[in-house]
Specification:
Oligomer: single chain
Strand content: under 5%
Helix content: over 70%
Structural class: mainly alpha
Number of strands: 0
Radius of gyration: 24 Å
Shape: elongated
Order of helices and strands: HHH
Distance between the termini: 62 Å
Largest sheet: none
Length: 112
């Protein structure tokens, strides 16, 4: 029986993972360019392996982007539901956050 789908938790490891995959993709593309028209069985084997790795990395990037999109949509839906269910609390929270941001900006401007 398949396990029920769980909501992915946002983590701070998403950005480093995406950066690492992008780095791998760039390195693989660079290696493919450097191989260029090199002939021989060894060069062809390396070219094939790099192409496979590149394809896998791009697939993982697409999956990560899709998961991130789902998390953002879920958070937006939950925030919308909270605001619709608790409009006055949402207004109070927004006012509080606005005051904090204003305070931080004014302190930053005064330091300069």
């Amino acid at each position: 029986m398949p396990e029920p789908a769980t909501q992915p938790e946002p983590t701070n490891t998403v950005d480093p993972a995406i950066e690492e995959l992008n780095r791998i993709v760039e390195q693989a593309e660079s290696l493919l360019r450097s191989l260029g028209a090199e002939g021989g069985e060894a060069a062809e084997a390396v070219r094939e392996r790099v192409s496979q790795t590149l394809h896998q990395a791009k697939s993982k990037l697409a999956a990560t982007a899709s998961n991130a999109e789902e998390v953002v949509e879920s958070l937006a839906e939950r925030a919308d539901g909270y605001v619709r269910g608790n409009p006055w609390q949402a207004v109070a929270i927004a006012a509080l956050l606005g005051g904090v941001v204003t305070l931080l900006i004014s302190k930053s401007v005064n330091r300069q």
